[in-house]
Amino acid sequence: MVFPSALSALWSAILLTVLLTTAVYSNVVYDDDPLQPVTADETVSVGGTVTLTCRVAESDNSSLQWSNTAQQTLYFGEKRALRDNRIQLLHSTSTELTITIADVQLSDEGEYKCAIFTMPVRTARATVTVLGVPGKPQISGLETPVQEGQKVTLTCTSTGSKPPAKLHWYRGDQELEGHLDVVESNPDDPTYNVSSELTLEVTSSDDNALITCAVDHPSLAPGDKRSEQTLRVLYSPNVQIHPGSNLPREGEKFSLRCTGTSNPEPTSYIWEKKDGELPILAKADGAVLHFPMLNKSDNGVYVCHADNGIGNNQGEYILLVQDEAGNIPDPTVMAPSSGVDHAVIGGVVAVIVFILLCLLIVLGRYLIRHKGTYLTHEAKGSDDAPDADTAIINAEGGQSGSEDKKEYFI
Question: Which pLDDT tens digit goes with each residue over 260-281?
């Protein structure tokens, strides 16, 4: 009768012999050996399932065995050796032993061994590589709007990747070139944190653009892990003026609407007319300029200034009013009505002033030439008279009658 202790000692001796034999022949290469096990390396992501297969070409009825990185036997033929419910038998014959390991963790990475207990023992090794799945990337730097013309630096970070992930930037569908990725190892596990920076000089066209940071990693399919944020840009108005009618006609109502595409929206509008003042009847109401009744004198270039606090800009519109016959003035020869009126008035005033100056000059010369020519009839012969009485007596005719007293005005 063989006692249990004796059986235990015998089994230990057999195992020791097997181990020694394995150590001696572990480096022996068996060419065309039908009993040599064949395995393959496997790669799996954290949380995934890996399948390990061991095969031999022929069988001598010896059992195949899988052991883990800690040299613990997982399966010996069809028999489970390690109580780990993640490890399951998938297929077992005299020439094949296939097992699966579910919910793989980083600690499962390493070298697994398949052995067939012949004399000598033959082994094959399979390296299991466990990929650390990177976390969803996080973008920072877009918390507040950016003013047009300024630069903004964005940062994208992804954690927990193994090997280190690569980060890619996109604006819409266009890939952008960021700075080199910064890789930092985690002290608690063999994974890495990766960050990347992107610097942009923004324009108004970037407003509401979609900025994307995508992770590139062997554990992921393209596009699996990405983050998107909208870029908000503050910019001054882009001003346009839209007419209420494409055919403004004399005597009809009309309006001009000023629109300013900007962020934020314009807060003030100012209307003016080039080379003159706004028509008396025209009324500005914020973004709209109303004409209750069009007149040909309203023709001209109208300007709208829009301001949104970030900046201001202006737009122009040429108003050409049709007459009752439907005729439209030629804009190439049209001058603003106010400018025409001022020119005409100025010309008339200049002519009037010139005429007045000419009259004053002629009158002045006439008065100068006829100064002191006022003579009376009594004064004739006074040059030879010794006194006034004699002068009167010597006057022509020497008469004092009323008929002969005449005065001449020249």
Answer: 999 999 999 999 999 889 999 9
The length of the chain is: 410
Structure tokens at 356: 């007045």
> Greater confidence, 29 or 186?
186
Write out the chain in H/E/C secondary structure: CCCHHHHHHHHHHHHHHHHHHHHHHCCCCCCCCCCCCECCCEEEECCCCEEEEEECCCCCCCCEEEECCCCCEEEECCEECCCCCCEEEEEECCCEEEEEECCCCHHHCEEEEEEECCCCCEEEEEEEEEEECCCCCEEECCCCCEECCCEEEEEEEEEEEECCCEEEEEECCEEECCCCCEEEECCCCCCEEEEEEEEEECCHHHCCEEEEEEEECCCCCCCCCEEEEEECEEEEEEEEEEECCCCCECCCCEEEEEEEEEECCCCEEEEEECCECCCCCCEEECCEEEECCCCHHHCEEEEEEEECCCCEEEEEEEECCECCCCCCCCCCCCCCHHHHHHHHHHHHHHHHHHHHHHHHHHHHHHHHHCCCCCEEHHHCCCCCCCCHHHHHHCCHHHCCCCCCCCEECC
Which of 183, 177, 176 has the alpha carbon at shortest distance from 162? Answer: 183
Confidence band for 370, pLDDT divided at 50, 70 and 90: low
Query: Tokens 């554990």 sit at which residue?
Result: 219
Judge if pTM exceeds 0.70.
no
Structure tokens at 153: 């630096």
What are the Cα distances from residue 75, in Å, to 40, 42, 90, 99, 104?
Answer: 17, 18, 11, 8, 17
Of all residues in the chain, the percent with pLDDT exceeding 90 is 65
Closest among 232, 248, 226 to 300, alpha carbons compared:
248
Name residue 345's amino acid: I
> 31 pLDDT exceeds 60?
no
* CA–CA dist 30, 368 (Å, integer): 146
